[in-house]
Design brief:
heterodimer, A: 351 residues, alpha/beta, six-stranded mixed β-sheet, four-stranded antiparallel β-sheet, 14 helices, 13 strands, 43% helix, B: 279 residues, mainly alpha, 13 helices, globular
């Protein structure tokens, strides 16, 4: 048995070197050594991501548009790719969508089982502006996309109805308003019943009504269980629709995780007392309190754990504190976003 | 087949390209109208069809040369079908929808091939019919002699169209690439002039002509040499002047090879451009 195990081990190490991907193989080796072979297989099967980025980087002469981003997109989630204009969102998407060549790093669709263009036939994607053949009608454009994606034309009617363009199916694309073009783009992205839908700024340039329509659509699609990656600079948009969020700024990934963890954390207390010193020592000793800042006349105490507010209040009274101000607050996603990108900016080395 | 379908679908639903394509093929057919040219000015009588231009096998040479002149007309379609993909940004969309870069290029090349073959077939049919009506010789052996002109014709067109394809992918703008095509013709002319002037001074073993055959447009032009001086009328004049006139009108294998190599370079170059560039 021992011999057998060893041979498996060396084989894997060897394979790893061959595959030029030592990173991936090292955990495998460890697992083999600890005899958790079956676990490893489960692990692989469940989490084979739809899309995986490894240190993906894009440089434009002096500018680093995307700086070594690694990501995994898991089936069934709604991801928000959040970042201000020019933060590298579209460049990142451009790279995985085969229109921009990465400077370094790589990405894998379906765990590397499919080539990029094969994978793109199975997904749906919309980039900044809808691009269609202006001289073709809505329906003709969709038929062409079906030919490219090698999918059935059967769902064209369904998708056009979903976006409310069935009545205009025989109108030429160049007669459409921007909102209609954008909705046609969504229909086009859905026409192959995609497993993943990539939307880059889908509400950009639309009027409020158009924005509302698109958002409703996205929610509807998400409700059907489609994995979505929504790139946007609009925080409330991401907050309303997404389950997970990835924050980008200046091409660097700042945060990745569930949207509620990011937007709420555990909240914070705004708290004030006549004797600030006692309050400070009390807060510093408390296990649920993290960072303490002085803001105007209050102390802002960030929570690092779930806390019973009533219990906390009683405790403070026991400690002999007389609180003149006490309130629990949750930061908005916007505040969190700003604090994330600003704090980290100071920490990021400029190389 | 799927790629060809995609390309034809794009062209078919564009009214302008549809009209142009049909127009081009109609023009080929309309060369038969040439046969009806009759000039009758009392003493001067000229009946084109009786000048021997429709005699087998000469007709193969004459028709392929004349109809090949129409290729510039069709080049606009090639240039438009590629240029539009850039101007409408549909190239980007096609890639995102899951067409690979090589598939995109192949769909264009297949379409070019189809048009070249259709065009060659039409030339064959038109020549066969015209020859059948007007030719003085009707033996099978003579009718199907010199068919290499048809081969040369198809390669000439293919070479020219792949050049257009490459230029448009390089420049990304339909109108500019047509302009560049003409500019290139001029550049080749200037190069030829320069070589004629200086080359023998620098490298005595080389003549300008020897190098010039390798220039793409010249090589494409060389495939089928002008047929006029081969006409009996012209030959008669030359004889009268006493200038014994001999010229080799055959399709040379070397020029076929040169053009094929250029086509390969153009297609490969287009692919490299597509691959390297960000959209």
């Amino acid at each position: 048995m021992g011999f057998f195990k060893n041979s498996v081990l060396t084989f894997n190490v060897f394979k790893g070197i061959l595959a030029r991907d030592r990173k991936l193989i090292i955990p495998n080796v460890k697992l083999l050594v600890t005899n958790k072979v079956s676990n490893r297989f489960n692990f692989m099967q469940i989490t084979t991501p739809l899309l995986e980025l490894n240190n993906l980087t894009k440089k434009y002469s002096s500018l680093i548009a995307v700086n070594s981003i690694s990501l995994k997109l898991i089936k069934g989630k709604v991801y928000g790719l959040l970042g201000p204009n020019g933060s590298g969102k579209s460049t990142t998407l451009g790279m995985v969508l085969n229109v921009i060549n990465p400077t370094s790093g790589d990405f894998k669709w379906y765990g590397g089982k499919l080539t990029t263009h094969q994978a793109l036939q199975k997904i749906g994607a919309i980039i900044e502006r809808p691009n269609f053949y202006p001289y073709m009608t809505a329906k003709q454009n969709l038929i062409l996309i079906c030919k490219i994606k090698q999918c059935s034309v059967a769902s064209i009617k369904e998708q056009l109805q979903l976006v409310g363009l069935w009545d205009r199916r025989d109108s030429k694309f160049n007669t459409f308003s921007l909102g209609m073009k954008q909705r046609l783009a969504i229909a086009a992205a859905l026409v192959n019943k995609p497993e993943l839908l990539i939307l880059d700024e889908p509400t950009n340039g639309l009027d409020p009504e158009g924005i509302l329509q698109i958002r409703k659509l996205i929610k509807k699609i998400a409700g059907l269980g489609t994995t979505i990656l929504l790139a946007s600079h609009l925080l409330d948009e991401v907050e309303k629709v997404c389950t997970d969020v990835i924050v980008l700024k200046d091409g660097v990934k700042y945060y990745e995780g569930p949207v509620n963890e990011m937007s709420q954390s555990y909240g914070y207390f705004e708290i004030a007392s006549e004797s600030e010193k006692t309050l400070l020592t009390f807060l510093e000793k408390h296990p649920c309190i993290g960072e303490i800042q002085k803001v105007n006349n209050f102390l802002k105490a960030t929570l690092i754990d779930i806390i019973d507010t009533e219990e906390f209040f009683k405790e403070s009274q026991k400690a002999g504190l007389n609180l003149s101000h006490f309130s629990k607050k949750k930061p908005s996603l916007e505040e969190r976003f700003l604090s994330l990108t600003q704090i980290n900016k100071n920490e990021t080395p400029t190389d | 087949m799927r790629l060809l379908q995609i390309e034809l679908y794009k062209l078919w639903h564009n009214t302008i390209s549809k009209v142009l394509i049909f127009g081009y093929f109609l023009l080929i057919l309309s060369i038969s109208i040439l046969s009806t040219i009759k000039i009758d000015l009392g003493p001067v009588k000229f009946y084109l069809a009786e000048q021997g231009i429709f005699n087998f096998p000469y007709i193969w040479h004459f028709n392929t040369f004349m109809i090949a002149l129409l290729k510039i007309f069709f080049a606009t379609i090639i240039v438009a079908m590629v240029g539009n993909e850039y101007s409408h940004k549909t190239l980007k969309q096609n890639l995102i929808d899951g067409l690979s870069k090589s598939e995109f290029l192949r769909s264009k090349v297949y379409a070019i091939l189809l048009f070249v073959l259709t065009s060659t077939f039409l030339v064959f049919i038109v020549s066969l019919i015209l020859g059948g009506i007007y030719s003085d010789y009707n033996e099978m052996a003579i009718i199907f002699k010199d068919l290499e002109y048809l081969v040369a014709y198809s390669i000439k067109l293919f070479g020219f169209f792949t050049f257009c394809l490459f230029l448009t992918i390089l420049i990304k703008k339909a109108a500019f690439s047509l302009g560049f095509l003409f500019l290139w013709q001029v550049i080749e002319g200037i190069c030829y002039g320069l070589m004629k002037w200086k080359l023998s001074d620098i490298i005595p073993q080389l003549s300008a002509e020897q190098v010039f055959v390798f220039f793409p447009l010249n090589a494409i032009g060389n495939l089928i040499k002008e047929p006029f001086s081969r006409l009996s009328a012209f030959q008669n004049i030359a004889d009268q002047i006493g200038d014994g006139f001999t010229k080799n009108y055959d399709v040379s294998l070397i020029s076929i090879l040169i053009v094929l190599v250029w086509s390969f370079i153009f297609i490969r170059g287009s692919y490299i451009l597509l691959k390297r560039r960000d959209l």
